[in-house]
């Protein structure tokens, strides 16, 4: 790639993004809830890690039914997180450290406490009434949080649509006045100096509920192109859409720069691999390593000249990856490093979820009253009524519940892990005694420093950004691939399991760049210990 073309490349192609769940990151006032000043306090930590941007989960004013994904005022900060002055200081202080703030944009739905919805209910002839989706009769659409997606409003005499909780009424994107309101609020934040938006369930805004169409409706891409024109178009700005229905065929529709829509999307195909076919996420099965390899490799087949890919294992909705695909007991550190190298060696923009860089794990509960997550609680009540055993439901929540990702960040070994001086809103994982930032920073061989090296490689070596990808022929339990450009050729090898695995590779190692264990001298017939992974420069 020429130096001139590299200058024209968007910053996010060589960036690493760090996701913060503000409620659980750092509390500074002792109320047990993380806040904006806590994020400001930890900016030096994030700068040292080397990240380029923070994806900030919602901090807007909200009743908190779905932990901020039910927004009551898009242009106000929820008091539990601080003030607008705190938010402006966060943007400014992050910028001084070369870190952009990417706001979470939730515009498929609002809170039922939003002034628009209050007016829509009060006055069915008001303009705001048509900002939402109403019907005289409910159809069979289901909510993601159990039950019908329709709620009867006796005050109005109609049903309103809620694809999530009944307190999260869906917006009517067919209404041009509503769309302009959304663009106005987006420009409010762009003018504040943010560097991007992560777009919550954005594939749903083109819904046609009367035809049972929710995701990927016929007008979806028209809306996104209009949004691009009216807001962030022409800016060096990151936009990433949450698209659970993304496929290799439709993902480029969002991210082809010529179409002027988004920078990239999150695709979730790997999250379905340990779920029973045709069942819900709670109904699990063992992971097939061959399936995992094939899915990851498939997404490397995008035409990266006309599309872009996101890379992630974790987020606020997913269980911790070291507990899910690794081994969070005997091989926690080694398997966490393996999963990190496997992902960060791929082409695309990597996302790190808070605590991933120190190997935080799932946090099991023993009873439903320990669970905060609305999705898990509603599943529990629904299945309990169907005759399921309590112990089986708790087991499912421990494996897949969203609270696993939301336990407070583990800064040190103190009672509340350095997260708060008060009582944390969600119980701290007891393993904070061992797994915490303080311990990680004091150990040069820790998961933290492994991530730091991966991030540095992403910044320094263009081969990770623009090199080709080739999956190598190995046993299902081993993933090996080449990254190659005109100047260089790299090899990534990962044992995905807790058992020794054999590899037979033709490459000659020139230089080991990163490894979590011993690297065999002869790859033509080698045995890889459990969860061993390495990245090396090989002969072209």
How would you portray this structure in words?
The protein is globular, with a radius of gyration of 23 Å. Helix content is 28%, strand content 16%. The longest helix has 16 residues, at 176-191. The protein is built from 17 helices and 20 strands. With 540 residues, the chain is an alpha/beta fold. The strands form 5 sheets. Strands 11-10-9-5-2-1-13-12 form an 8-stranded parallel beta sheet. Strands 14-15-16-20-18 form a 5-stranded antiparallel beta sheet. A 3-stranded antiparallel beta sheet has the order 6-8-7, with no helix packed on it. The two termini are 18 Å apart. The model has no long low-confidence stretch (mean pLDDT 96). Helix 11 (332-344) runs parallel beside helix 16 (447-460) and helix 12 (374-385) runs antiparallel to helix 13 (390-400). Helix 7 (220-230) links the parallel strand 9 and strand 10 (238-242).
Task: Indicate the topology.
Blueprint: H1 3-8, E1 17-20, H2 36-41, H3 43-49, E2 53-56, E3 60-61, E4 73-77, H4 84-96, E5 100-105, H5 115-122, E6 134-135, E7 150-153, E8 158-161, H6 176-191, E9 196-199, H7 220-230, E10 238-242, H8 251-255, E11 264-266, H9 289-298, E12 310-311, H10 321-324, H11 332-344, E13 349-353, H12 374-385, H13 390-400, H14 403-406, H15 437-441, H16 447-460, H17 462-466, E14 468-471, E15 478-484, E16 489-495, E17 501-503, E18 509-515, E19 526-528, E20 533-538
Parallel strand pairs: 1-2, 1-13, 2-5, 5-9, 9-10, 10-11, 12-13
Antiparallel strand pairs: 3-4, 6-8, 7-8, 14-15, 15-16, 16-20, 17-19, 18-20
